[in-house]
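Title: Comparing notes on inverse folding

I've been comparing how different people in this forum approach sequence design from structure. To keep things fair, I'm posting one structure and asking everyone to reply with a full sequence. Here's the target:
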């Protein structure tokens, strides 16, 4: 858990204009910066970045947030990854409870990571330079229909056939980082001795980039019929195959524009599809699709389509992808499976039948629910009790892996119909978490009523200027509570968040803290983000006026009740009436004084 104080300090040091400006072309427009929104298609700029609020807002699609939120949405990073990325840029070290390394050792680890990154970057540059003069490699790429433009976009290169070609760029060929990065193999310490030599020789090189665009590994393809056809970098401190996807860095914008991501089985599929009009393609790295892969994809889009060859190997890969998807399958996610004819991969299919035919294949892809039911029923005869029991046996671990949802219930109903049982029997037999079919679903928890009137005005001012939180004490909260109890609870939550930030509280830090509490404050944050910068002194006077009007309403309500219930028949009632009238008069005088001093 990263301390909130660190998040606040980080947002105070980071300039959101610099962060967003790395990815969006911004132009100064008044107090803010403007650009084309990276989260939806538009021709005229509606995307604004406020240097004073340290916040971005799109008037077109409503996207908004801090520098942390921008990295999460744009790069697909997790919260911790985004914080680390920003912290690294301003020379801060993220404190983590699980990080128990002494400072010196932690610095040593960071230095090693930096050294490996530099080695990989230099190797990538070397391979790209080598491709320019490698006629055999160029001929192979042209034969596959690739242009120089697409090769440059993906940074393709060529590893010469010599045993130690990397000496040309790394004179210190004994550098341990070359082995640790996977670029060089060292046999000198094995039995019988040996020597160092380049891992990749006479291969087309596909650099694998992380979400920041840094080269963390390579995939090398042979030019002839040699084996292995593809050779990948080994696992290193920079590169874990089960976490990374080839082409994701290059495809991020295209995924947003297309509204879906296409997951293929190979490097060449990704590069060829990008040239043929499908730049939203990515690929796993010589390993089965993992839940981490799926989670990473779902940060980019809610619509994922897996494309597999129609042969037995493709079916096995699809089954593993299905199992990886199940923990993340939900009612707001679309996960589909596309199977091409056995003789085709995506590249060959598009070239033979054209892009429109492939687009139709994508539209007709099989939904996860249909594929799951097809998988569990294909090995048994549903006309027999044994066959139906077999289908249930196959389905049980899959349904148990899914979170409770309407989608899971739909699959349960389909399985029940297929196996001549009821949904309730399936849920009981499988011991599914939070069963839906056999119990009456609890009514959904309603969100708090959105604040209106004076309460909303006060909250809006506090969101914009959290430093004004000290103006509201117990008496002010008590007044709001009498008029709108639910809004008082929301106001208290907002005040707690403001006080937690301390004297250095600002709009960006407060917004980031409120983001984790749910959607209650999202509308207010969006409104403040879209509004022009307000003067703190004017905001203070406006808040004081809202507080005073709230007290006036409370006094009036009590006066009305007093007259209605007692008719001022007792001395005690008349005395209380006079006190309330005096308080009203004092508030009126305060209002007059403030009006004349403005």
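Reply #1:
Here's my take.
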């Amino acid at each position: 858990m990263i301390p909130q104080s660190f998040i606040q300090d980080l947002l105070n040091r980071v300039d959101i204009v610099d962060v967003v400006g790395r990815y969006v072309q911004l132009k100064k427009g008044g107090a803010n910066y403007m650009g084309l929104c990276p989260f939806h298609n538009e021709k005229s700029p509606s995307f604004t970045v406020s240097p004073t609020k340290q916040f971005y807002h799109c008037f077109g699609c409503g996207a908004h947030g801090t520098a942390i939120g921008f990295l999460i949405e744009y790069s697909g990073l997790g919260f911790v990854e985004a914080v680390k990325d920003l912290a690294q840029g301003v020379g801060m070290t993220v404190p983590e409870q699980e990080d128990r390394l002494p400072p010196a050792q932690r610095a040593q680890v960071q230095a090693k990571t930096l050294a490996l990154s530099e080695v990989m970057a230099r190797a990538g540059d070397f391979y790209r330079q080598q491709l320019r003069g490698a006629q055999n490699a160029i001929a192979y790429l042209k034969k596959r229909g690739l242009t120089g433009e697409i090769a440059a976009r993906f940074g393709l290169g060529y590893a010469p056939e010599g045993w130690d070609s990397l000496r040309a760029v790394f004179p210190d060929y004994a550098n341990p980082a070359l082995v640790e990065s996977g670029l060089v193999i060292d046999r000198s310490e094995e039995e019988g001795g040996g020597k160092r030599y380049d891992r990749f020789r006479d291969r087309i090189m596909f650099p694998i980039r992380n979400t920041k665009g840094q080269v963390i590994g390579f995939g090398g393809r042979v030019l002839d019929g040699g084996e292995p056809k593809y050779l990948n970098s080994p696992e290193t401190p920079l590169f874990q195959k089960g976490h990374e996807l080839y082409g994701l860095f290059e495809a991020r914008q295209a995924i947003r524009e297309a509204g879906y991501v296409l997951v293929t089985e190979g490097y060449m599929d990704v590069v060829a599809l990008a040239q043929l009009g499908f730049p939203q393609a990515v690929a796993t790295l010589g390993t089965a699709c993992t839940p981490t892969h799926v989670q990473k994809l779902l940060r980019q889009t809610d619509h994922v389509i897996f494309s597999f060859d129609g042969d037995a190997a493709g079916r096995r890969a699809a089954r593993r992808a299905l199992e990886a998807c199940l923990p993340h399958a939900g009612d707001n996610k679309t996960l589909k499976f596309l199977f091409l004819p056995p003789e085709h991969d995506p590249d060959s299919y598009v070239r033979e039948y054209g892009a429109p035919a492939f687009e139709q294949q994508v539209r007709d892809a099989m939904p996860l629910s249909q594929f799951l039911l097809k998988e569990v029923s294909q090995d048994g005869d549903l006309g027999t009790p044994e066959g139906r029991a077999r289908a249930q046996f196959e389905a049980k671990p899959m349904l148990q892996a899914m979170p409770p949802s309407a989608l899971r219930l739909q699959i349960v109903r389909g399985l029940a119909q297929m196996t001549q049982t009821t949904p309730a029997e399936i849920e009981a037999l499988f011991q599914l978490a939070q069963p839906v079919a056999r119990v009456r679903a609890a009514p959904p928890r309603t969100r708090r009523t959105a604040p209106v009137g004076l309460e909303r005005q006060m909250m809006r001012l506090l969101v914009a200027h959290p430093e004004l939180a000290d103006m509201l004490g117990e008496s002010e909260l008590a007044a709001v509570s009498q008029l709108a109890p639910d809004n008082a609870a929301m106001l208290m939550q907002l005040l707690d968040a403001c006080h937690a930030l301390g004297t250095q509280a600002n709009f960006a830090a407060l917004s980031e803290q409120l983001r984790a509490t749910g959607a209650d404050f999202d509308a207010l944050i969006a409104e403040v983000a879209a509004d022009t910068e307000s003067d703190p002194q004017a905001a203070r006077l406006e808040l004081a006026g809202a507080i005073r009007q709230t007290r006036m309403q409370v006094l009036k309500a009590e006066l009305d009740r007093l007259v209605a219930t007692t008719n001022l028949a007792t001395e005690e009632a008349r005395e209380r009436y006079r006190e309330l009238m005096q308080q009203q008069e004092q508030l009126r005088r305060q209002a007059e004084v403030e009006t004349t001093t403005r």
